[in-house]
Amino acid sequence: MFNEAIKSYINTYDDPLKIFLEMSLNQVDFFTNLPRQIKNEWIFTMKQRQLEKGSLLYRIDTFSDEMYVLQSGLVEITHQMDNGDEFVIERLMRGSVVNHNSFLMNDGIDTDAKCRTAISLYYITI
Description:
The protein has helices at residues 2-12, 16-25, 29-32, 36-45, 100-105; strands spanning 47-51, 56-58, 66-72, 75-80, 86-92, 97-98, 112-115, 119-125. By secondary structure, the protein is of the alpha+beta class. It has one domain (2-125): Jelly Rolls, CATH 2.60.120.10. The mean pLDDT is 89.
């Protein structure tokens, strides 16, 4: 009974971080219709990580079992051109959900994700 009371309280409790993570996840179609209780369980299992400027969040031709929500910093999604030049596909900042397609579909990664600044993120892994 105590555990059910705690779960009930957690489901209705809203702090700024929980609201931020829920709003960020709702940008992904998969999460928009997910029941709030399940979404809360995902949010409360997320862990925080910091990476330094110049770090790779993930690399092309790998598999990742992680999905990320950027709390701060700048990540660029890039592709290496045949001539060796790097093409920036997208710049992602606070609130961006990164790698959700590969995570949800258990699919390979076809781009690099590079930290252009120091970043702070929340991630979930399967």
